[in-house]
Amino acid sequence: MHRRDVLRTLGTAVVGATAAPDWVASLTALAQHEAHTGAAQTAVAATDWKPKILTVHQNETVIVLTELIIPTTDTPGAKDTLVNRFIDGVLADAPAPDRDSFIRGLAWIDERSQALFKKPFAAASADDQTSLLIRLSAAGNPEKEAQIGRDFFDAIKSMTINGYYTTEIGLRRELGDSGQLFQAVSQGCDHPEHQG
Questions:
Q1: What gap in Å lies between CA 15 and CA 33, rounded to an integer?
Q2: Between residues 34 and 148, which one has the greater pLDDT?
Q3: CA dihedral 32, 33, 35, 40 (to 10 degrees)
Q4: What are phi and psi of 181, to 5 degrees?
Q5: Are residues 83 and 165 in contact, defined by beta-carbon separation less than 8 angstroms?
Q6: How far apart are CA 39 and CA 166, in angstroms?
Q7: What are phi and psi of 166, to 5 degrees?
Q8: How far apart are CA 188 and CA 195, in angstroms?
Q9: Are 109 and 126 in contact (CB under 8 A)?
Q10: How far apart are the C-alpha atoms of 68 and 23, rounded to whole Å?
Q11: Are 82 and 168 in contact (CB under 8 A)?
Q12: pLDDT digits (tens, 9 = 90+) for 131-186
């Protein structure tokens, strides 16, 4: 199975989850909206970009998490396509309670990694990082991981997928889009009756 098929399945599962708490559904919907409108792309591409919401440490953790979700393979992954900037932009536009829930989940990931591996998540080994994410995503939650961690992982997965597929790499190289979906600049409507 190709990565794009896995991501489509994963994205559908996350978006379609009926048990998702309101803040996960809200952030997912906002990420989808910003992906479809291209609202986040100007900020993502900025050469002088600085996080609006995330601290330096939080941003580094988000980079690691998103790269684990969409790693570099024969195409660039989430890190190379600056998905962390997309997520920060979504968080900047999100209602404060939703943003706060995401930040609490991000802190939980570090706390859980510290308890399991004696290191914050971004400093843990790649194997340890992956094992924690597998624990969070396991059907039936056999490891009894806290709901905040499982909800956070659902939220960051959906935001990562939406952010990745707003990029030219995600659309053209991963999905094989011929340019119908990705437009570097919106040309607007070209019907004569809508001009002027």
A1: 13
A2: 148
A3: -130
A4: -95, -40
A5: no
A6: 10
A7: -90, -10
A8: 9
A9: no
A10: 23
A11: no
A12: 999 999 999 999 999 999 999 999 999 999 989 887 665 454 554 545 554 444 44
Provide the token pair at 115: 């308890």
Q: Could you tell me the two tokens for 170?
A: 């995600």
With H, G, I as helix, E, B as strand and everything else as coil, classify residue 148: helix
Name the residue type at position 29. Answer: A
| DSSP secondary structure letter of residue 47 | T
pTM, two decimal places: 0.79
Give the Cα separation of 118 and 115 in Å (integer).
Answer: 6
Instruction: Report the pLDDT value the prediction gives residue 6, as an integer from 0 to 100.
Output: 47
Task: State the DSSP string of 154-173.
Answer: HHHHHHHHHHHTTSHIIIII
Residue written as token pair 């990705």: 182
**Secondary structure element (H or E) that encloses residue 12, with its range:** helix 3-15
User: Exposed e or buried b for every residue in 133-144, given b needs 16+ CB within 10 A?
Assistant: bebbeeeeeeee
Q: In terms of Cα–Cα distance, which of 47, 60, 50 is closest to 89? A: 50
Using CA atoms, how far residue 172 sits from 52, 67, 181, in Å, is 29, 19, 9
Name the token pair of 179. Answer: 């340019």
Tokens of 188: 């607007």
Is the distance from CB of 107 to CB of 115 less than 8 angstroms?
no
Cβ atoms of residues 182 and 12 within 8 Å: no
Token pair of 120, please? Answer: 């914050």
